[in-house]
């Protein structure tokens, strides 16, 4: 069996991607990213230089990070358990970098910007109450517009497999200008970085921002240059 075939049978890694299953003795670092400069606080919706904390009053170095909205406890523990049960009733597929995934949506060729509906008939029924709740929260916000999903992707990040996702830019051509994420099973951290464009229009403190996302929390992100 070739090395490529052996890797495919164990995990979904291809090319330079890796995980603890196919390369257990190699570090899972892809590039030397600088440490985060600022932290987004979901309690007051402001960013602070340094580690995660909410000052509760004006402080030196705070600034607004537009285009991100976090809703803590978006689902209850009972709803989370029900969702996980519904999700696990469908098969998982091996994916890159130690992940497993479930994709619901049309087939897409991003290079040629073509959509092939194929056998796609819609999103799973368990997602309906999530979409309804997202739009309920939007109605109370003057800056968020009605959310109509065109794809649902369930991603499993298992520490034992060294599951991760490399720094990347999400395509805006088909999926639109917003990405909604719901964190289940555990808390997580999202890191927003700017590409090395050499732009002088962006202040230095915006170059790297950390956002802590608690278990059962929902985050909506506008897709811009991040």
Quick synopsis:
With 226 residues, the protein is an alpha+beta fold. The protein has three helices and twelve strands; from the N terminus they run H-E-E-E-H-E-E-E-E-H-E-E-E-E-E. The chain has one domain (3-222): Jelly Rolls.
Which blocks of ≥5 consecutive residues have pLDDT under 50? 1-8, 199-206
Secondary structure: number of strands: 12
CA radius of gyration is 19 Å
What portion of the residues fall into strands of 2 or more residues? 15-25%
Sheet with the most strands, sense and barrel status: 4 strands, mixed
Helical percentage: 10-25%
Separate helix tally: 3
H-E order: HEEEHEEEEHEEEEE
**Average pLDDT reading:** 76
Task: Give the class-level CATH name.
Answer: Mainly Beta
Give the total of domains: 1
- General shape: globular
**N→C terminal distance:** 41 Å
Strand order, largest beta sheet: 2-1-11-10
- Going by helix content, strand content and strand pairing, the class is alpha+beta
CATH topology: Jelly Rolls
Features:
single chain, 3 helices, 226 residues, 14% helix, AlkB-like_sf, oxidoreductase activity, 4-stranded mixed β-sheet, Alpha-ketoglutarate-dependent dioxygenase AlkB-like domain-containing protein, alpha+beta, 3-stranded antiparallel β-sheet, demethylase activity, Jelly Rolls, ALKBH4
Written account of the structure:
With 226 residues, this protein is of the alpha+beta class. It has a single domain (3-222), classed as Jelly Rolls. Helices cover 14% and strands 23% of the residues. The strands form 4 sheets. The protein has a 4-stranded mixed β-sheet with strand order 2-1-11-10, with no helix packed on it. It is globular and about 45 Å long. It starts with a helix and ends with a strand. The model is unreliable at 1-8 and 199-206 (pLDDT under 50). GO terms for molecular function: demethylase activity; oxidoreductase activity. Its cofactor is Fe(2+). This is Alpha-ketoglutarate-dependent dioxygenase AlkB-like domain-containing protein.
């Amino acid at each position: 069996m070739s090395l490529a075939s052996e890797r495919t049978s164990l995990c979904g890694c291809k090319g330079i991607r890796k995980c603890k299953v196919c390369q257990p003795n190699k570090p899972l670092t892809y590039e030397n990213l600088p440490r985060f400069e600022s932290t987004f606080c979901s309690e007051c919706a402001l960013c602070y230089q340094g580690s995660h904390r909410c000052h509760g009053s004006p402080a030196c170095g705070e600034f607004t990070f537009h285009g991100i909205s976090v809703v803590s406890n978006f689902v209850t523990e009972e709803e989370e358990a029900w969702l996980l049960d519904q999700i696990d009733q469908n098969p998982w597929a091996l994916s890159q970098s130690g992940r497993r995934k479930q994709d619901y949506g049309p087939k897409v060729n991003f290079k040629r910007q073509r959509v092939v509906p194929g056998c796609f008939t819609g999103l799973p029924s368990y997602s309906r109450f999530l979409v309804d709740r997202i739009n309920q929260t939007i109605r109370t916000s003057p800056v968020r517009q009605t959310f109509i999903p065109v794809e649902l992707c369930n991603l499993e990040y298992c520490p034992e497999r060294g599951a991760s996702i490399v720094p990347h830019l999400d395509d805006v051509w088909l999926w639109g200008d917003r990405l909604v994420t719901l964190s289940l099973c555990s808390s997580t951290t999202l890191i927003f970085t700017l590409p090395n464009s050499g732009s002088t229009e962006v202040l230095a403190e915006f170059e790297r921002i950390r956002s802590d996302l608690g278990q059962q929390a929902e985050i909506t992100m506008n897709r811009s240059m991040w």
